Please model this.
Amino acid sequence: MTGSHLVWRQLFDRESSTYTYLLGDAQSRVALLIDPVAGQEEQYLRLLSELGLTLSYALDTHVHADHVTALGTLRELTGCTTLLGEQSQVACVSRTFKDGDVIVVGDIALQALYTPGHTDDSYSFYWQSELGDLLFTGDTLLIRGTGRTDFQNGDARAQYHSLQRLLELPETTWVLPAHDYKGWTRSTLAEEKAHNPRLQVADAEEYARLMASLNLPHPAMMDVAVPANRGCGLTGS
Ligand code: FE2
Model:
């Protein structure tokens, strides 16, 4: 989809079912990537070049446990600035952001919303764009689901409050998650409010009981991905 100023793409990593978002300003020709995956750098660079865009920023919504980030390699390849939330405590990123910060790339202005719960470093990004309000929810709010809260300092009660904060945004806001395992690509806050089973709870206690009953398996990549991502995905760093 291309608006008059905005270029945006949703890219998919099949192995980890991760969505990576490319946002570009068609006038100033600058772009950013949200949640890029190691191994996909060639595809990102090809697309950026075909669209005539220069990568200014690459950022992650949180330190992922299910795939290795491409932040480090993209910075090496393009000289882009890499960003993570201050709670991630990852020293190799260029800069950190905190709640309320606005990340500006050309006409794009993403507001960082600290939404802990899936992990203690989880952020969402909100932008009132010309194509409607966009909300990049990371693993905080998924389509008809929410990110698990049983590792990486996850906290179901904190996540409940983070979800309430997101649900205060306009109902027509597009929900653009970091993953989907069923082929859903996007949703809206109204749709999730009505149909997401994790949002049909009365309070934080009920949400915590629901999350505790999930009995999820240990993520396959976790023991590799988390330490790798603490080094921005660069091996040997
Ligand atoms: Fe995650």
User: Anything to note?
Assistant: The CA atoms of residues 31 and 218 lie 35 Å apart. The pocket of fe (ii) ion is lined by residues 62, 64-65, 118, 139, 147 (CB under 6 Å). The chain is about 25% helix and 30% strand.
